[in-house]
Amino acid sequence: MTAETRDPASTGRTMRAALKTEDGRFRIAEVEEPALPAADWVKARVRVAGICGTDLRHWKKPDPELRCCIMGHEMAGEVVEIGADVTHVAIGDRVLVESVLGCGHCEWCRVRQYNRCPDLYPTRRASVSRAYAEFVVGPQHKFYKLPDHVGFDDAALLDTYAVCLHAQHLSGLTINARVAIIGAGPIGLGQAMLAKASGADVLIIDTVAHSLEVARQLGADVTVDPEQQDPVEQVMAFTQGRGADVVFECAGGTSMPTTLPLATKLARRGGRIVLVGGFDGGETEIALEWQRIQMSEIALIPSASFAVHDIYPEQAEVLDLVARGKLRTQELITHRFPLDAINDAFEVALDKEKTRAIFVALEI
């Protein structure tokens, strides 16, 4: 066992986990099972974890800082141990686990903007953002009890939906808005459902036929394959020539140099573009029509993860929306793999045009 896999607090027992390798894949190993570091912390047995776009961007890419780390941040499970001060959940509760955990003492954490915490990633990776393992620990306020009719697999999608909800809150989307979404992966589809639930009309763009089919099943008004149709022409027809009130860029990653300029062409004068899809680290050069953006007063709004909106944790809000049937999940869950097959699961998730993958679940 290496220093990288040893937790500061340990039970002396071991658990199975998927560890990042030097080449960016995973290996299954026995590592120390985490102990509760404080009286208000909870331990859960992870039942289902998800593979998201951030995970895929690190797939097969050597990343020394992640070597031997336990990854994954979308999960649901069952409470198996609680600290003496825990009142929020009890042993045996089925729970959604939120992995967005800030340091708790910086200026942003103090006003519950913990998604902006300067130490967000080191903090969350040290404890609760370790979904690809049998057990995970975190402070009690990050555990949400599941209604009986919400499954572990449904709940594992809710990190994604909370990202979408945060983006919608930032967008200022209102009823009867004309919305364009670039990317019909889990985030784009979640964004579409939220926009429809809020009374908007939705056009969604993707090159994967199966994803567009699912988008239509979930209520999208118009679907566009940019390899077959001109997205700008389609959006103009959809909006009576004005352009979209709100554009959500939900593809991210290596596609951003193409999708972000497209988003600026789809937005109307005075419209808003929300950057939901993630960038890779370092500097990214993307040429944009800055004069047109400025003269049209088009707003570019970055959106990062999620936190609290008004008095409501956004993770709790999407759980409530799923529980009440306002957001759907099962249409997005296309594949399930055991933890031992995590490398196969990542291959399937990446090759979505061939496999028709949307949300790939790991049953742990």
Note down, in words, how this protein is organized.
It is a single chain. With 364 residues, this protein is of the alpha/beta class. It has two domains: 3-157 and 329-363, Medium-chain alcohol dehydrogenases, catalytic domain (Quinone Oxidoreductase, Chain A, domain 1, Alpha-Beta Complex), CATH 3.90.180.10; 163-302, Rossmann fold (3-Layer(aba) Sandwich), CATH 3.40.50.720. The chain has helices spanning 53-57, 107-110, 120-125, 152-156, 158-171, 186-197, 209-217, 231-238, 256-266, 290-295, 314-323, 342-350, 352-355, and strands at residues 10-20, 26-34, 41-50, 75-82, 94-97, 135-139, 143-145, 178-182, 201-205, 222-224, 244-249, 267-275, 299-302, 308-309, 312-313, 333-338, 359-363. β11, α9 and β12 (267-275) form a beta-alpha-beta unit. The protein starts with 9 loop residues before the first strand and ends with a strand. Belongs to the zinc-containing alcohol dehydrogenase family. This is (R,R)-butanediol dehydrogenase / meso-butanediol dehydrogenase / diacetyl reductase/L-iditol 2-dehydrogenase. GO terms for molecular function: oxidoreductase activity, acting on the CH-OH group of donors, NAD or NADP as acceptor; zinc ion binding. It holds the Pfam family ADH_zinc_N.
